[in-house]
Amino acid sequence: MSTPSRDGISQINPADAVQIAARGDAILIDVRDPGEVAQSGKAASAIHIPLATFRMRADPASPECLPELKQGKPVIVYCAAGGRAQMACQMLVQFGYGDVSNLGGLRDWAAAGGTLEP
Hints:
Oxidized Rhodanese, domain 1, two-stranded antiparallel ribbon, 5 helices
């Protein structure tokens, strides 16, 4: 499961994240740079939103906000090691998203049995 924190961001167990994403019960976001995704692929079903464009693509007040993020589902974010994911999670909380979790890195996803796609 996830470990709640005082800032509204949970650290989710990677195995739980794999199961939740497989059921379609959460939105999975990859915030790595495009070159990183091109090199290693991304988690299956993840939406790629580089951290550099995250604010405009995730802010519900932005005309560039992705429709998938307006579904009200929990959001799980990852990057390469967890640092950028934490920054993205903090932005999501500021934007008013209620259930936000940091998965950590893509390696955590893969180690928990999560599949990758190009």
